[in-house]
Structures are given as structure tokens and as C-alpha cells.
Design goal:
The complex is a heterodimer of chains A (267) and B (807). Chain A has eight helices and twelve strands. Chain A is of the alpha/beta class and 267 residues long. Chain A has a ten-stranded mixed β-sheet with strand order 5-2-1-6-7-12-11-8-9-10, with helices on both faces. The radius of gyration of chain A is 19 Å and the shape is globular. Chain A starts with 8 loop residues before the first strand and ends with a strand. In chain B, 49% of the residues lie in helices and 17% in strands. Chain B contains 28 helices and 33 strands. In chain B, a hairpin with a 3-residue loop joins β5 (167-171) and β6 (175-182). Chain B is elongated. Classes of the chains: A alpha/beta (267), B alpha/beta (807). Chain A binds chain B through residues 15, 17, 45-48, 50-51, 53-63, 65, 67, 70, 75, 78-79, 81-82, 109, 129-130, 132, 134-139, 226-227, 230-231, 233, 256-257, 259, and chain B through 134, 137-138, 141, 144-145, 148-149, 151-152, 154-156, 159, 168-180, 185-189, 192, 200, 204, 207-208, 211, 214-215, 217-219, 221. β3 of chain A pairs antiparallel with β6 of chain B.
Chain lengths: 267, 807
């Protein structure tokens, strides 16, 4: 089974505290013998820069709850320091993993820049800092432009090495059903963990062709999927392009609530 | 009364035809023991006394095989009695440095250990299984979801509220800011400054409000997080407790009679519930650094082991143990250590029992000399007996030199009889120098070095021989060889009525005889092999003896064995060279002259005589005085010496010889030199028994044999020594052939009648000798009287001259 379209251009968003090298290494499943081109995108958030110039704004520390005054200098220094740190990490990780990598800095509003850059990429990898573990920095709805764009994306949530299985939603009616299954198998093989197919109750009889363990789900609601992922302590949830559901709503809900990473294959 | 002994008196032989076997292969080994009734009764008394301090000190030679005798006796006494208890050490979770001890009936310790192993094995499997169950995971996720939901809701609420106030919530590398927006974009500075003061004031108020809201929520998070952890922990504990309770319910019913175990189960349960995460870590992948060391979790599980230090499952009664290396550790046990990161560490699993633990409830045999040679062992033993507990202490602890954290295992009550095996010398040393000894060892079992030559003991001897043969895989002995061994056992104690108890000696003899039989290519040890083994022993050790004999033959050591001499007699001595004893004739000479009753012992004057010898000389002096100076002063000055003696003289066995030499010197009656004599005497001239009679006779015989037996050579011994004769077969043969003569005497006159006889092999009436002695003493007395008179007159003349001159 072959993927219908090769994934070689990867956009790695870098508004994060550190690069998850394990996650970056896992991207190798897409290489399929080709060289991956990795673009590390750092967006200097225009909103943040603007906010820094406004008088009387304060920053609330997430760790201590302390309030401190915001200034243009302070904001610029934070952005510059974070950018430098991320660049070093990104380049070192890419070098270690032997990827063709490019570090790119753009100025603008994060989600606009992300959506724009996604056009020229085969997959967007959203590192977890945009989705702060303690308290979400951005509600799932912020990703709506990205989701609506029908782009392949990978949300990296918990540190990559946690989790004990890969769960793939099994939908034979999906246009990229076989691609999704193929990628899921490759991830499972590479990570050496179990692949579990989450199958709609009504499809369970059509599973003869697979050797993987399957679990029947009453429905593919947000609640059912989140529960399954938590219950099985999933490392990655893989979603195919299904026509049976309101994907946009489901995805935004999952981005909000999932603990594990999420791979969406759209095309 | 004097008597010449015929050959039959010189060696008691055992009739091998009386044995009910042809070879020792037909004898059941170890069935009989040599009779030591006094020691046996002492052992039985000590064993039977239920009070403390009635431990036993077994006196006697180390070669007498006391250990075997006592062990057999004890095993016989305890036969049919109940086995002693099992003892275990278990972890003390509250005070890990003080492991607890548990006493259990025999066999239950092993079961308890096994049950705990199974229990922990099950815990290790079932708790992770329980915590991985769908039910548990659902419950755990529900708790985690609640927090996650809480946070999501908070973020949504804040974002929504901010949106309502025309603000946006932006992440920064460190936290969040709230900024005013226009059309979903943060207002730029210029636009912001164009706002009226009131509008900006309102925005600032809104931002402050949102900041307060966020702060408030953030303040709650640690508490919520803590509650989550507690809820999850409580859930884990609840699930684990169900598993543990189920597993333990069966154990509880099995051990309900043992309070300590029930308490221990409660402690185990508590400890497991407090450390469920350690159980969960057991099967988790290890970090590379941990792969080379025992993980904390593994060590945690080890703390539920049962260290069974005494296992009496297979015992058939109270233990009877012998500890061959009675060091401190071997007695009271020890703490072993393992090395972790270069540091020695220990725990209750590394407690090792000592002999006191293993013998608890029974009997422990210890070699006293070895015990006293081991540092701190004697002190530890005394303290254990006295306190009636076994406390495991290291040398460093005993010296208060412990610098590292160690264990203090709970002492175990001690109920043991100690049997110390030691020498008489050590016994008296301990009594004199150790104040506790008498209180702790109140029973003395005195083992003889010899036992009666009775049919029962002969049977026991054959059994011992058979046992030795079996133990060392020696060739079997035929009946004649067994008889020869028993005769040798009698010779070892120089007594026709006794047998040596030094069976170790006999064991060595059998091994040497076995070697000789092998050389002869025979499958049976015969009498000749035993005899030859004895001869070869003598030969191997006999270099000095041989040298003495040659020096006598060459005339370097003067010993006359023919003719007669005045004032000279052949005494008999025993020379000791290490473990080897042999007889040697000594020339004793006496001189006599006019004097005032002085008898000079040259040995004593030269400080070469021992105390007993000095005492004997005083007896000789007293005898001479009482016999010859009843009605007149003894005008004699006599002197006696052992010629060519360079190593000192001790003992009283030359008393008769000395008297005879002195009387010969006084009377000038010659003494026969082809006779040698030994024997002590009392003040009345009665001859008394001496030691080493066989060696002494053989010593003189060897000299005579070397220079040629004439048929006139012989020795005179005390009559009371007759039953001690166990002479070599060649001596007996010479006597049988009239080549050598052995006479017994009961009085000094008997001895004199033989020694002063003019003709060989005859005796004279000693009155003649006495007359000569008296005449000579009278003669000296008269000279002395005249001399004293002249001296007195001279003295009077001088005094009267002085008076005149004064006038």
C-alpha cells in the first residue's frame, strides 16, 4: 500500500519552550525513501509586539501568578531570547537527525502566518507550546483557519515518548483510508508500540482484512474518542479524511481536549 | 618379698580366638562406647538440670575423643524429645535498623517464608494488573479529566470574558497578557493613544480585572493539582488494598495463632499501600545507570522477605551441635554486607545465624582452647549464657567503634546447654582467673585417659576400630591385628588392667598399618602390620635414643653392665624428647665419709634437681637416720649424684637406687652392675610404684642387648608395678629364654639382697650388709667422739690460761 501523495515538506512551528526531538525523529515515517525538507517557522507575534508598546499592560506569570509590568523592551527581549534558543535547538536537532532543515522567522499574527505558510507545506507540525499544558494559551477555535484549510497536521501534545499505543480511526469509507492505515502501521512499527484500530460498531464486521487489534466504538463523538485515547494511554491518534462526520467541529474539540498527539491526514 | 617374674607376667595378651569375628568388616561400627561412668553421670546430671548455669566443662585429654562420646550420649538422651523451634528475622518497617525476630514451631518457618514469597509474587503481579484494569483506568481518567476539564473551562471562560471586554489573552514565553483588541487584532499604539482618557481607563480596569481573574484561577491550581494527586493516590490505595486484603485473608486464617505474624501482616499491608508506586516501577524500563545496580523497588520487595535463620523442619529432636571454629561471628551470628556504590550496606536479609542460634533449645559443644583463642568469642558466649539471649554484635560494636549505620537485630531468647571440651590445665586457669566461670559452668565431666580392660570395653574398642576403618576407608583388620591394637592401647597407659582412651592415637596407628599392608600388597591388616607400625613410629622418633645407646656402647656415657662396684648403681630414667619417651640407664654414684649426718644431693646443690627429687632425697636421709642412728649420732657425710646428667633430674623413682648406692659406699660392699633398679620408697624402706616402668626396663634391656646379653642381666622393679608391665615382645622372649631377668621387690632389703649378692642370680642375707654399715658408722662415730673430746680439752686449756692472765 502506498501513500497517494508524498509528504516531504514539513512545516514545524516553533513557538515553544523546547524542541521535542523524539517527535521530530518520528517524522521520518513520512520520508518513504525521500529526503524530508523541514522548515522551522518562528512567528514573531505581531499582536504581542503591539501589546508590548501599549502603556499599562501587565504580564501574569503562569508558574507563580505574579504580575509584572510589560514594556516594549521586555517583550522584544523575550521574543529575541526565545527565538535564539529555539533556533539553536531546532538546527541541532535537525542536524542530528540528518534532515534538510531551514529556520525561518516571520513577523505577523501567529495563526495567519501559520495558515499562510501551510499552503506550501505537505504537513504542519504544531509543537505543544502553543497549547500550554497547564492552561491552554489558545482555544481550539483559534486553529479553525488551519483546520478549514484541509491541511495535514500533527499536533504534538504530551512529550512524544509517553503513551503506550497508537490509535487510528478506521473508516473504510474515507478517501485516504489505506494511506491512513499505512501511516499508522509505520508509526507503530517505528515506535514499537501497539496499533489499535478504533472501529465504528457497524463496521466491525468488515475488519477481516486487518491483523491489528480493534476496539469497537459506539460512535465517533469527541467524548468517545477522548475517553478511548485516555483509557488506552495513547501516544498518537490518527484521523483519516472521513466524509461521515463534521470534522471541523470534531477536530477543534479534540485539539482542545486531547492529551495525546493528534495526526490528521487530509490529502 | 622379692620375686623373679616369669614371661607370662610381662605382657597381657588378648586371645584373638575369643572375638566373635574374623575381620573388622563384620563389626557394626560405632555401636559401643568406652565406659566412662563418672563422666557419663556428670553429663546426664548437667543435661537434666533445668536451671541456668549448669553448663558442662568436659575435662580430659584432647585425644580421648570426648566430643564423640558426649555427642553420642546426648543424642541418646534427647532421642524422642521434641524438635526445637524455627527462628526468622523479619523487617521492622517502623524502625528498619531493628529487625524483629519470630519464633515458630518446627517447619512453620519454612512455610511462612514460602507463603510470604508467594504473597509478594502475587502482589507484584496483581497490583499492577488491578491498576491496569479498565475499571481502575476509567476511575483514574475521570479524576484527571476533571482537572483537564476544569482548566479548559477556565481558559474558555477567560477567553470569552476577555473577548466580551474587547480584550485578547496572549501567551508569552512566561505567561499571559491581556491586550485590547479591535477586529480581533491588538490595538496599535497610535490608535490606543487616540482613545479618550476614560476609554483607556476602562481598558486598564478591564485588564486589571482579567489579571485578577487569571491570578485567582492560577492560585487554585496547586490545590486542585494536589487534590488530583491525593484522589489518584487514594484510588490507587483503594484498589491495592482490595488486592492485598484478598491475598492476606488466606494467610490470616493460617497464622491466626501467632500474634507476631498477624501484627506483621498488618505492617506489611500498611507498608505496601504506602509504596504502591514502587511496585508499579518494578516492570518499568530501567534507566541505563540503574541496570547495573539493584533498583530501589527490588530492594523494597526484599524487605518483605522472611530470613529463616533456623530451620528445624528436618530435625528429629533438640540439636546437638559441635562448632569447630568458635569465633565471635560463628557463635552469635553476623551481619553480612553488600557493596552499593562503594559503600557497605546491610539489611535484615543479610543476618546470618551463629552456632548459638542453630543449637538453641539443644546442646552446643565447643573446644575451650579454640574458643579462648578467638577474639571476643569467650566474652560473647558468657554474656549470651548469662543474659540468656543471643545478641548479634560485631567486633566493632563490642569495642564501641561503629561509625556507620548498622542493624540491631532483636535479640533471640537463648536456651542452650554449652559443653566446653578442654584440658585440666585450662579448667584450672579459667577457675582461677575468670570470676564468671564457676557460675556459668557448674558441672564438670571428668574424662579418664584410660578405662578398665573389661570385655565391654574390648567390644567398644573393636567397634571404634571398625568405625575408624570405615571413616578413613582403611583395610579391614583381622582378629589378631585387633588384639594387637588393644594390647597397644594397654601399653599406651602402661597398665595390664586399663586401656587408653586416646583413640585418636589408635586411629593414626591404623592408618600407618594400612599403609604397610598396602606395601605388602595385602587386603587385610594383620598383627604384624600393627607391630611394625608401632616399631616404625619408635624408629622414626628414636634418633636421640639411638645416639644415647651408641654413646653408652662407645663408653662416652659410662654405664657398667657387668661386674660389681662400690658406691655405684644403675638407676633407670625416662627421657622425654617431644612426644617420644624412652628409658635410659643412669649411673648413680655415692660417696661416704666422716661427718655430722649430712646427706648432700649434688643435683639439688647444683640446682639441677626438681622438688620431688629433693623430697625423695630427704626421705632417703630420714630412712638412713632412722635405721642406723637410733642410739648414736650419724657421723656420716654422704653425697649422691646422677653421673653425666646434664638436663636436670626430677622424680622419686631413683630413691631405692640412691639408698643402695649410699649403703654400698658406707659399707664398702660392692653392688652388681648387671642389674638396674627403679622404685621409690617411704621412710620405712617400703618400695613404692613408679611411672614409665616399661620404658625403663626396655631402656636397660636395649643397652644389654647391644653389648650382649649374658643371661645375668636384669632389672629390679617395685612389686606394685607388676600389673603395669606391657613389655615388648623381644623383652618377653629374652625373659622366657632366661637371657634377661625381671625381679620385683617390696622392701629396700629385698632390693639389697639382690644387688649385694656376690653371685649372679642369687641373693644374700642383707644382715651382713647392715652389719658392715653399722660397723663403719660406729667407726666414724668413735673417731668423731675422740676428735670432739680433744677439741673440748683444747678449748678448756685456753679458757683457764685466759683466767690466769686476767688475774
Amino acid at each position: 500500500m502506498k501513500m497517494t501523495k508524498q509528504i516531504t515538506r514539513i512545516l514545524f512551528t516553533l513557538e515553544c519552550d523546547s524542541i521535542d526531538q523524539d517527535a521530530m525523529r518520528a517524522l521520518a515515517v513520512f520520508s518513504n525513501g525521500n529526503t524530508l525538507e523541514l522548515t522551522g517557522l518562528y512567528v514573531e507575534d505581531q499582536d504581542l509586539v503591539n501589546a508590548g508598546q501599549l502603556p499599562g499592560l501587565v504580564e501574569i506569570s503562569l508558574s507563580s501568578g505574579e504580575i509584572s509590568k510589560l514594556s516594549p523592551l521586555r517583550v522584544n527581549r523575550q521574543i529575541s531570547s526565545q527565538q535564539k534558543k529555539i533556533k539553536t535547538q531546532f538546527e541541532a536537532s535537525a542536524r542530528n537527525l540528518n534532515y534538510n532543515a531551514m529556520f525561518k522567522v516571520v513577523k505577523g499574527r501567529v495563526f495567519e502566518m501559520l495558515t499562510e505558510a501551510a499552503i506550501d507545506s505537505d504537513i504542519v507540525v504544531v509543537s505543544r507550546s502553543l497549547r500550554h499544558t497547564g492552561m491552554r494559551a489558545h482555544h481550539g477555535s483559534r486553529f479553525e483557519p488551519l483546520v478549514s484549510q484541509h491541511t495535514n497536521f500533527l499536533f504534538i501534545n504530551e512529550p512524544w515518548r509517553t503513551g503506550e499505543c497508537i490509535i487510528a480511526l478506521y473508516d473504510p469509507a474515507a478517501s485516504n483510508h489505506s494511506v491512513t492505515l499505512d501511516v499508522a502501521r509505520k508509526f507503530a512499527e517505528r515506535e514499537q508500540i501497539e496499533l489499535i484500530l478504533a472501529v465504528p460498531q457497524k463496521e466491525i464486521s468488515n475488519l477481516a482484512e486487518t491483523t491489528e487489534r480493534s476496539i469497537a466504538l459506539q460512535d465517533w463523538s469527541e467524548d468517545s474518542i477522548v475517553q478511548l485515547c485516555q483509557f488506552k494511554n495513547a501516544r498518537l491518534l490518527i484521523l483519516p479524511e472521513s466524509k461521515n462526520l463534521d470534522w471541523r467541529k470534531l477536530l477543534l474539540g479534540l485539539i482542545d481536549r486531547l492529551q495525546c498527539s493528534l495526526l490528521r491526514l487530509e490529502r | 618379698m622379692k620375686l623373679e617374674l616369669s614371661a607370662e607376667y610381662l605382657l597381657k595378651k588378648l586371645d584373638e580366638t575369643s572375638f566373635p569375628f574374623k575381620t573388622t568388616a563384620e563389626i557394626k561400627p560405632d555401636e559401643e562406647l568406652l565406659t566412662q561412668s563418672r563422666a557419663k553421670q556428670s553429663i546426664e546430671f548437667g543435661v537434666g538440670m533445668p536451671f541456668s548455669g549448669y553448663n558442662i566443662y568436659a575435662l580430659g585429654s584432647t585425644q580421648s575423643n570426648k566430643r564423640k562420646l558426649i555427642t553420642k550420649r546426648l543424642e541418646h538422651l534427647v532421642n524422642g524429645e521434641k524438635s526445637t523451634s524455627d527462628w526468622c528475622y523479619i523487617s521492622n518497617f517502623e524502625e528498619p535498623e531493628k529487625p524483629k525476630s519470630i519464633k515458630l514451631p518446627p517447619g512453620l518457618g519454612r512455610k511462612f517464608r514460602r507463603d510470604m514469597q508467594i504473597f509478594i509474587k502475587n502482589v507484584r503481579v496483581l497490583i499492577p494488573a488491578s491498576l491496569s484494569s479498565d475499571e481502575f483506568q476509567n476511575q483514574k481518567q475521570e479524576i484527571a479529566n476533571a482537572l483537564q476539564l476544569h482548566r479548559t473551562n477556565d481558559a474558555t471562560e477567560l477567553e470569552q470574558e476577555a473577548k466580551n471586554l474587547n480584550l485578547t489573552m496572549l501567551p508569552t514565553p512566561k505567561g499571559f497578557i491581556f491586550a485590547p483588541v479591535d477586529n480581533d487584532k491588538v490595538i496599535e499604539q497610535d490608535a490606543y493613544l487616540e482613545l479618550s482618557t476614560e476609554q483607556r481607563k476602562e481598558i486598564q480596569n478591564n485588564i486589571e480585572h482579567m489579571a485578577d481573574q487569571l491570578q485567582e484561577k492560577l492560585r487554585e491550581y496547586p490545590k486542585i493539582q494536589q487534590k488530583l494527586i491525593e484522589d489518584q493516590r487514594s484510588l490507587i490505595q483503594k484498589s491495592a488494598e482490595q488486592v492485598i486484603s484478598t491475598l492476606m485473608s488466606n494467610l490470616h486464617s493460617q497464622y491466626e495463632d501467632y500474634t507476631r505474624i498477624i501484627d506483621y501482616f498488618a505492617a506489611v499491608k500498611h507498608e505496601l499501600l504506602e509504596n504502591v508506586e514502587k511496585i508499579m516501577e518494578l516492570d518499568a524500563p530501567q534507566a541505563p545507570a540503574q541496570m547495573f545496580s539493584t533498583s530501589n523497588s527490588e530492594l523494597f520487595l526484599d524487605s518483605f522477605n522472611v530470613n529463616l535463620i533456623v530451620d528445624s523442619t528436618d530435625s528429629k529432636g533438640p540439636p546437638v551441635l559441635y562448632e569447630s571454629n568458635p569465633s565471635l561471628d560463628s557463635l552469635v551470628g553476623k551481619l553480612e554486607h553488600r557493596i552499593e556504590f562503594g559503600m557497605p550496606v546491610t539489611d535484615f536479609n543479610l543476618i546470618r545465624p551463629g552456632a548459638l542460634h542453630r543449637a538453641n533449645g539443644g546442646y552446643l559443644l565447643l573446644d575451650a582452647e579454640r574458643l579462648l583463642q578467638k577474639p571476643f568469642a569467650w566474652d560473647a558466649l558468657k554474656r549470651s549464657i548469662s543474659d540468656q539471649i543471643i545478641r548479634i554484635e560485631s567486633v566493632s560494636q563490642m569495642m564501641n567503634m561503629t561509625y556507620s549505620v548498622s542493624l540491631e537485630p532483636e535479640p533471640i531468647p537463648l536456651d542452650v546447654k554449652i559443653i566446653l571440651l578442654g584440658s585440666n590445665y585450662l579448667y584450672h586457669l579459667l577457675r582461677n582467673y575468670d570470676a564468671d566461670f564457676d557460675q556459668l559452668f557448674k558441672v564438670v565431666a571428668d574424662f579418664d585417659d584410660d578405662v578398665e580392660w573389661s570385655p565391654q570395653n574390648v567390644t567398644a574398642y573393636t567397634s571404634i576400630i571398625a568405625s575408624t576403618v570405615k571413616e578413613f576407608s582403611l583395610k579391614a583388620l583381622d582378629a589378631a591385628a585387633v588384639a594387637r591394637v588393644i594390647e597397644h592401647a594397654s601399653r599406651l597407659v602402661a597398665d595390664q588392667k586399663r586401656l587408653s582412651t586416646h583413640v585418636d592415637d589408635i586411629g593414626d596407628l591404623l592408618k600407618e598399618a594400612d599403609f604397610l599392608a598396602t606395601q605388602d600388597d595385602l587386603s587385610i591388616i594383620a598383627r604384624k602390620h600393627i607391630s611394625k607400625a608401632i616399631e616404625q613410629r619408635v624408629f622414626r622418633l628414636g634418633r636421640y635414643k639411638e645416639a644415647v645407646r651408641k654413646n653408652i656402647d662407645r663408653g662416652l656415657i659410662l654405664v657398667d653392665i657387668s661386674g660389681t662396684k662400690v658406691g655405684q648403681i644403675n638407676g633407670l630414667s625416662v627421657v622425654s624428647v617431644g612426644q617420644f619417651l624412652f628409658g635410659q640407664p643412669m649411673r648413680i654414684t655415692a660417696t661416704a665419709r666422716l661427718g655430722r649426718g649430712e646427706l648432700i644431693d649434688i643435683e639439688r646443690e647444683s640446682k639441677m634437681g626438681g622438688n620431688i627429687h629433693s623430697k625423695a632425697m630427704m626421705i632417703v636421709s630420714s630412712f638412713i637416720g632412722s635405721r642406723y642412728a637410733q642410739d648414736r649420732p650419724l657421723s656420716l657425710r654422704g653425697s649422691l649424684v646422677f653421673e653425666q646428667s646434664y638436663g636436670g633430674v626430677e622424680g622419686d623413682s631413683a630413691s631405692i637406687a640412691e639408698v643402695c648406692a649410699l649403703l654400698s659406699a658406707i659399707s664398702e660392699c660392692p653392688i652388681r652392675q648387671n642389674l638396674a633398679i627403679t622404685g621409690s620408697m617411704d621412710q620405712h624402706g617400703k618400695v613404692q610404684a613408679i611411672g614409665g616402668v616399661n620404658d625403663k626396663i626396655e631402656g636397660f634391656f636395649d643397652i644389654c642387648l647391644s653389648q650382649g646379653l649374658t643371661g645375668e642381666h636384669g632389672v629390679i622393679i617395685p612389686e606394685s608395678n607388676r600389673e603395669h608391665l606391657m613389655l615388648r615382645e623381644d623383652v618377653v622372649e629374652a625373659v622366657k629364654n632366661k637371657q634377661f631377668h625381671i625381679h620385683t621387690v617390696t622392701t629396700i632389703d629385698d632390693a639389697m639382697s639382690l644387688l649385694f649378692s656376690e653371685k649372679p642370680l642369687s641373693s644374700i642375707d642383707v644382715k651382713e650388709v647392715h652389719k658392715c654399715v653399722i660397723d663403719r658408722l660406729d667407726h666414724w662415730h668413735n673417731i668423731r667422739l675422740n676428735a670432739d673430746k680433744e677439741a673440748e680439752e683444747k678449748s678448756t686449756d685456753i679458757e683457764s690460761t685466759d683466767i690466769h692472765e686476767n688475774d
